[in-house]
User: What shape does this take?
Amino acid sequence: MREKQPDIKKALSLIEAAKDEINFTLTLNLNDKSANTIVRNIYESFRMLGQALLTAKGKEIPDHISHINELIRIKIETLKPLNLLDNYRRLRHNINYYAYKSNIADAKDIINFAKLCFEPLYKEVKRKIESNSYEKL
Assistant: This one.
């Protein structure tokens, strides 16, 4: 971990980019060829929310585990447990580094998770960053 100056502007930019990316990804047609892209893009959108919280705190941590753990620690009610994000992290890792070919069921699962959990998590991350309450995580 590297300590840096907290960067609220960059943090807000990250969460907006995450929202744009997930909104685009959810418009893609789901098939065998698009499954990997959909899984990776949705996971990356969530990861960026975690990175935004760390950026607002002035912490630069290159590993995805820390980004996901920042999100899992947030105390909000969602229709699916946020700790599923760690499963999606592993799935994305297998796709990127072990040539795993995700299937339509994998993609449907993460799409369902995104539809249920992204918006409330996005709103809470944005609220924390704008109100400087991210330190209380």
